[in-house]
User: What shape does this take?
Amino acid sequence: MSDNRAKKSKAPLKTLGRTLGFVIKNYPVHCVVVLICIIVSAMVTARGTMFTKELINDYIQPMLDGDLSSDVGFRELGHRILLIALMYAAGVFATFLLNRLMVYVTQGTLKIIRDTLFEHMEKLPISYFDRNERGDIMSIYTNDTDTLRQLISQSVPNMISNISTVITVLTSMIILSPLLTLTALVVVAVATAITRMLAGKSAKYFRKRQKNIGEVNAFIEETVEGQRVVKVFTHEDKIMEAFDEKNERLYDSTRLANGLANVVMPIMGNLGYLNYVVVAIVGGYLAVAGVGGFSIASLVPFLQFTRQFNMPISQFSQQLNSIIMALAGAERIFALLDAPIEEDEGYVTLVNARESEDGTLTECEERTGVWAWKHPHSADGTVTYTRLRGDIVFEHVDFGYVPEKTVLHDISLYARPGEKIAFVGATGAGKTTITNLINRFYDIQNGKIRYDGINIQKIRKSDLRRSLGVVLQDTHLFTGTVADNIRYGKLDATDEEVHAAAKLAGADYFISHLPNGYDTEITGDGANLSQGQRQLIAIARAAVADPPVLILDEATSSIDTRTEAIVQRGMDSLMEGRTVFVIAHRLSTVKNSSVIMVLSDGRIIERGSHDSLLEDRGVYYTLYTGNKK
Ligand SMILES: Nc1ncnc2c1ncn2[C@@H]1O[C@H](COP(=O)(O)OP(=O)(O)O)[C@@H](O)[C@H]1O
Ligand SMILES: [Mg+2]
Assistant: This one.
């Protein structure tokens, strides 16, 4: 977990309201029943305790005084006890129901939250994932939902239960004796003040200990990870010394913290009895003196209330703390849910079409292999159809991932169907960025990008991306078979289509030598395949989709030169009749391109065919002759 994950919530009340609002919205009836259960069980306890007063006043005292015959007394007493027993049974049932409901409501809410989170995450723009680390996003699903579980299932119900206990107990105490209640409250206030003071002192040492534990752990983790480096540079002794120093500090702070805790804890634990003792003495005096009709019969339940009162009070600050911590988790969940989704104002869509003799296009339902852009014009209500060809034009495009830093400057280029456009240049020159703009992972600041003559801002993103095939350097494979992974490019592809695509990509040979051929399971992002084999599968995946425009970003960089020669043939047939953007380190791969663009610091500094660029003896010439070994 990184440091920027704040431990405390910034707007606790707002977040709490939102969290509870979420729960109540989904489970309104359950929440009402839960609240009733909590109140019932608090009232049952108070009523049960009150019963001792009636017991003494109505039966025991009269029987002792001889005012009540023991026959009648015991019978009535029996009835009352039965009634109280029933009431306690209701209390037990309320607690049972409460626990069952809480499990149901909590787990249900978590499921809804996970679903909502995932659904929302899928709609977020790529830039969200630039700004947020993978680990942080993961931890929203794991750690933060878990703290939310504790919040919903424990912290909040316990808090409500404690508050209702305090209210019922305090009311009962006031009914029994306002004067004695005041005494008890004063003692509680004094005890709380003492506790705070002592706890503050030891908390200081505990915080220091916590910090030292963190340092020792971090040091161990770093050393374990860097074991190879440590050994290679023979730093074992130095590292041992550094560890010793940190370990010593941990020892010191722990000793102090625990030493103080050994003194403080028992005092704090027994402060509750102070209240009990003071109330017993003062209450005993009041009863004997008969002040305000206070009697021993009232003192017995009052003492019990005093004890019931202590517990929620001492737990209060701890519970409040855990609620505030949990709310920080809830806040991160809401932050993801509030992240603005990827806007799509596009209205030009991609449809299946049929072309008549005279070249006019008509839209149709079935797959014809001919695609057309359907372009409605709001001005006159007409619809025009443009054949999907894969003609891409950049006109004076400027772009930066962040407003402060322009990454691409004045990029203009024309890519006609069937042409192969290559980008070469140093790492960070902006090659990948250009391709990110074609599929509209990001929007440009200046200029225009046209696709078959249509401004790509007008094209619906999903349709735009459907028309593009992208193979990246870091291929991502999903859990499933090899065939499933190729089919990812076109979900309804037949086995024949999958095999043909693999052949085209040059992946067929190695796949047929896998233990189960196309049915071989891919595990852990393709850990059982080599990097090159994964790229071949990714190329086959793009091939099966049969897109008019293909983007290959260092797609063959992990394939050895010999395999590349084989793949190259497949790639050449794959590229035929398509617009292809190729980015490659190995200049041999791009030699046969229609046009090669040399990028430097986000500018196209040279452009032309391989031969003409060599003739110019510019940057490309240096790159080519320098690279060629
Ligand atoms: N997601 C991003 N957010 C911010 N800056 C980025 C991002 N991706 C790339 N850049 C920056 O844009 C520039 C061009 O990067 P890129 O197009 O990936 O280079 P290339 O593919 O030519 O190696 C670099 O300076 C890089 O730091
Ligand atoms: Mg790149």
In short: The first helix runs from residue 12 to 26.
